[in-house]
Design a protein that fits this description.
Rossmann fold; 2 domains; 17 helices; alpha/beta; about 525 residues; single chain
Length: about 525
């Protein structure tokens, strides 16, 4: 990812939030938090889920009224708290993670929604288009202002949200996890737009959990923890160690877990995949996973990592090769047969393919083993199911007041742990984790790493697929690198010579190994 130029901070700040507090009943959501932003800077805001980032931005946007005692200044002038219309008039725009566009309207209509120019009492669609065109051109957008939003990709819709902010002459734009659903190309396009906004003197407050984005974009980073302000780092001071320490209150050395190495398992091969392929995206791949180890699978996007996992799990049909568990060849005709055999797979798309978001935590955890709760007469033992769910919530540190709460109401990290709890109830011998920490905050990542380490200590073979190289290096005992649907090579780590990021990238981008 390319970086953007640092701003000249000789100007006065365009935004000053001073000693902002917010309480809901007896709960304190913010405690004397201060934040400044300068024209033409990207100021990143980081912290775990629940740290107060969203609450602070809702106070800024006028959605919440701050408690007495704090103040908000825009270009040195007091701004009224709790008034969205006045916040918008002050040049404040917030682009939330869940976009708020009307898909049945055109791009131009969405840009001016609620502020449409009129003529003789009717909306002037010609004028709307004329006003929209220069803004879209400024952002380098090629699609037509007359195009329906429903026909746009997520990345293009993100651009429409930014264009809408510019129709109000926004001087401060908040972007909340803007790349969560974007492709790498759409992310690059967004970064180009951010660079253009900076060049025009607009201040960007950028909320993200992704360290690589912070390094690429941020001029400064402020961190919240437990509803309070922890500190601000200049770009020259940024490091993973300092950011993690500020966000979770402990240093990076305790972040990644590899205590399973001391468990001294016999390293028996549990899963053996031989020359598996689908004839299209995966070719002649062989993988061995041992009891009590964490095997990483790395590679660039499109290298075939997820496709390989789906072949092993039986989610997609293979055209060649075999899958053996404890030396016995499996005849897999779908995911259920793999799960019954002892292979569990955590999908990278937990919301679309993994969880039932409108069902409770209890139901999600128990759905894979519901047959075990059957009583005579066809009734289910709901007490047994609840006890199982309560135990999983406790052992995996799932943060919830009750297992009856719908999974959709949980944070990303807790949703991931619910999905993992469901898989563990099947008592697997092998667990394949595809992007296990995608979209979760740094605190939840640390807890997921702890769980992975404890599972390896128990003798389960763990296969982790991840595009986060520091994650792979931090938790894996050895790494298989894929390129163009093949295993390009293997890297084995040790205490004396840990796995190196350069070695992984060399295999990812160099020529893949092919059969002679």
């Amino acid at each position: 990812m390319s970086t953007v130029a640092a701003p000249d901070r000789s100007d006065a700040p365009v935004l000053e939030m001073l000693n902002i507090s917010k309480t809901f009943g007896n709960s304190r959501a913010l405690t004397n938090v201060s934040l400044t932003a300068y024209p033409g800077e990207v100021h990143a805001l980081m912290g775990e889920n629940g740290a107060g980032k969203s609450t602070l931005m809702k106070v800024l946007s006028g959605a919440y009224v701050a408690d007495p005692g704090g103040s908000i200044l825009v270009s040195g002038r007091p701004a009224v708290s709790g008034d969205p219309i006045k916040a918008k008039a002050n040049g404040i725009a917030v682009i939330y993670q869940e976009l708020s566009l009307a898909p049945n309207l055109t791009v131009a209509q969405n840009m001016f929604l609620g502020a449409e120019p009129s003529r003789m009492g009717l909306v002037d669609r010609v004028d709307i288009r004329k006003r929209a065109e220069p803004i879209l051109k400024r952002l380098g957008i090629s699609f037509s202002p007359n195009q329906l939003v429903s026909t746009l990709s997520l990345g293009e819709r993100q651009m429409v949200e930014i264009a809408r902010a510019l129709t109000t002459d926004a001087r401060i734009i908040v972007m909340d996890e803007p790349t969560t659903s974007l492709t790498s190309r759409e992310t690059e396009k967004l970064f180009e737009v951010i660079a253009s906004l900076k060049a025009h003197g607009i201040a960007i407050i950028y909320i993200s959990h992704r360290m690589e984005e912070i390094y690429a974009l941020a001029d400064r980073v402020s961190v919240l923890r437990d509803s309070a302000y922890v500190g601000t780092l200049e770009r020259s001071e940024l490091s993973a160690a300092r950011l993690v320490s500020m966000m979770v209150g402990r240093d990076l050395s305790s972040f990644y877990k590899k205590e399973h190495r001391a468990a001294r398992h016999d390293r028996k091969v549990v899963l053996s995949v031989k020359n598996i392929g689908d004839g299209r995206r995966v070719h002649d791949c062989s993988v061995d996973a041992c009891a009590g180890e964490v095997l990483g699978i790395a590679g660039l996007v499109g290298s075939g990592r997820t496709e390989l996992a789906r072949l092993i799990y039986g989610a997609d049909p293979k055209t060649s090769g075999s899958v053996l568990l404890d030396g016995r060849e499996l005849s897999l005709n779908g995911p259920r047969s793999a799960l019954d055999a002892g292979i569990a797979y955590l999908t990278e798309d937990r919301k679309g393919l993994g969880l039932f978001l409108d069902m409770s935590i209890n139901e999600n955890i128990n759905i894979g083993v519901i047959s075990e709760d059957a009583r005579s007469g066809g009734f289910l033992d709901f007490g047994k199911a609840k006890k199982r769910a309560d135990s999983a919530v406790s052992s995996l540190s799932i943060r919830t007041k009750s297992t009856s709460i719908n999974v959709g109401a949980l944070s990303g990290g807790n949703q991931q742990k619910v999905l993992l709890a469901r898989l563990l109830e099947t008592k697997p011998r092998v667990i394949i984790l595809d992007e296990p920490t995608r979209g979760v905050d740094v605190g939840a990542k640390s807890e997921i790493y702890r769980i992975i380490d404890e599972l390896a200590q128990s003798g389960i073979a763990i296969v982790v697929i991840s595009s986060d190289l520091p994650e792979i290096i931090g938790i894996a005992d050895r790494v298989l690198v894929m390129r163009e649907g093949r295993i390009a090579g293997e890297i084995v780590g040790s205490e004396d010579q840990p796995i190196g990021q350069e070695a992984i990238m060399a295999l990812s981008t160099g020529p893949a190994k092919r059969d002679a």
